[in-house]
Design a protein that fits this description.
Layout (H helix, E strand, L loop, with lengths): L1 E7 L6 H9 L6 E7 L6 H5 L8 E3 L12 H12 L4 E3 L5 E3 L3 H8 L5 E3 L2 E4 L2 H11 L12 E3 H6 L13 H11 L4 E3 L4 E4 L5 H11 L3 H8 L4 H7 L1 H10 L4 H6 L1 H21 L1
Parallel strand pairs: 1-2, 1-4, 2-3, 6-9, 7-10
Antiparallel strand pairs: 4-8, 5-10, 6-8
Helix pairs in contact: 5-13, 10-11
Length: 277
């Protein structure tokens, strides 16, 4: 069985879509658990249209959150605790998937312990094209993070570090813990679709800038000299190497209009990061 854990907060615009995508999978032996954290909209009610009440949980009813730094991590961890599957899948609520994704993941986890999923960003207008172009360079790099994990390895690392690592670098942290523990990692051919139709250029910048203050705990945990940390926060890797390594430079120069857009966004975020250091 595959346990799908969806962490939600005010996801009424997305929750039905992701559940329908999951229930349309070619692999049917799945359980879907929604763990909500204080939604003020009708996310929970919409989820219960498709799922039993026992599978739609309100985290504050079960977990003391007073010492929790990463609520998304706490939501997924509690969902895993309540789940039964040997494979854990934790997508974001604003995602959908190729119909054969879970079937492929089940097959791959016969050999591997954790899996990345290629991502296609679905956005609006030219900015949406820039976002999708940029994201395509990150698949299975240190900028990416796994989404499928065997229960054995998830429990071995105690899941997300909800007490010490804030949301934003928490998925990098989990991926690093898994690899450090010996997990074999691969990537699926099937893709996930990240729905950013409502995300504008300005709201994207505000969202990303809001993450800047969360980086210090992650860097402190792994060390500023850690190979992945150096790449994740270095100008050289984030602005050059990740776009040209493994022959990706061909894709970069094939769409110079989108490449210029990517660099404008990266420079704006980089300047803000430097100002906040």
């Amino acid at each position: 069985m595959v346990s799908v854990i969806i962490a939600t907060r005010n996801e009424s615009a997305n929750i039905e879509r992701i559940i329908k995508s999951l229930t349309s999978q070619t692999y049917s032996n799945i359980e879907i658990i929604v763990v909500d954290n204080g939604s003020s909209d009708n996310t929970q009610e919409l989820a219960r249209k498709f799922l039993s009440r026992d599978n739609v949980l309100h985290l504050p009813d079960y977990v003391d959150l007073s010492n929790v730094k990463n609520f998304r991590g706490a939501q997924v961890n509690y969902g895993v605790y309540k789940s039964n599957g040997k494979i854990i899948f934790f997508p974001d609520a604003d995602m959908t998937f190729d119909n054969n994704l879970i079937e492929e993941a089940v097959s791959k986890t016969q050999k591997y312990d954790a899996l990345y999923i290629p991502e296609i960003v679905i956005g609006k207008g030219f900015f949406g094209k820039i976002r999708n172009f940029e994201r395509s360079f990150y698949n299975s790099t240190c900028i990416d993070a796994v989404r499928f994990v065997t229960r054995r390895y998830y429990e071995l690392v105690d899941g997300f570090d909800e007490k010490n690592i804030a949301f934003s670098t928490d998925d990098w942290d989990l991926t690093k813990m898994l690899k450090q523990s010996g997990a074999l990692v691969s990537i699926t051919k099937s893709v996930k679709y990240h729905h950013e139709e409502s995300l504008s250029f300005s709201s994207y910048l505000i969202k990303k800038i809001g993450y800047i203050d969360t980086f210090s705990d992650y860097i402190s945990k792994w060390g500023a000299d850690d190979e992945d940390v150096v790449r994740q926060f270095s100008v050289k890797y984030r602005y050059f190497t990740v776009f040209v390594e493994d022959g990706k430079w061909r894709r970069l120069i094939s769409r110079m209009d989108l490449a210029i857009g990517v660099y404008i966004i990266r420079i704006m975020l980089g300047l803000k990061y430097l100002l906040n250091r």
